[in-house]
Design a protein that fits this description.
mainly alpha; AhpD-like; 7 helices; globular
Length: 157
């Protein structure tokens, strides 16, 4: 499959994505644990069906030491026993934050309160921005049919 657009060859995309990717770098540098960031990025990408982001975040998580068992169970995290309560809270927030069109209420007060029990203000802010960031990245890639499979860990760092 060929991509509909080459973001690297387009001057407008180059300008806009420079700023977009710097937001991603700020998230990477936040106090939100790396494992949580990669699990959330992967789950949002699974929900949205973004193959290139699933490829990227599976490989980045593995390179950061994440186990194949946990990566393989992200899609079924509710039934899996391998995630911490904090990770489970982040994954639930990620799902509700991604599926806002599916539920008229958006993120429930219960999910928000449970997540806030596990993360401080800075981490919670990073988590909310990460979920939003990943939804945007997914859409950029899905709309233009960016192909998956060739990503190398650290490629965009």
């Amino acid at each position: 499959m060929d991509a509909r657009l080459n973001y690297f060859a387009d001057p407008t995309a180059g300008k806009a994505l420079k700023y977009f990717m710097s937001a991603g770098k700020a998230l990477k540098d936040s106090s939100l644990p790396t494992a949580t960031q990669e699990l959330v990025a992967l789950r949002v990408s699974q929900i949205n069906g973004c193959a290139v982001c699933v490829d990227m975040h599976t490989k980045e998580a593995a390179a950061a030491g994440e186990t194949s068992v946990r990566l393989n169970l992200v899609a079924a995290w509710r039934e899996a026993t391998v995630f911490t309560p904090a990770e489970r809270a982040a994954l639930e927030l990620a799902e509700e934050g991604t599926r806002v069109a599916d539920g008229a209420g958006g993120v429930s007060d219960e999910v928000w309160a449970y997540t806030a029990k596990h993360y401080d203000q800075e981490q919670l802010t990073a988590l909310v921005i990460l979920i939003s960031f990943m939804n945007t990245a997914n859409r950029l890639n899905i709309i233009t049919r960016q192909p998956a499979g060739d990503y190398e860990p650290g490629q965009f760092h």
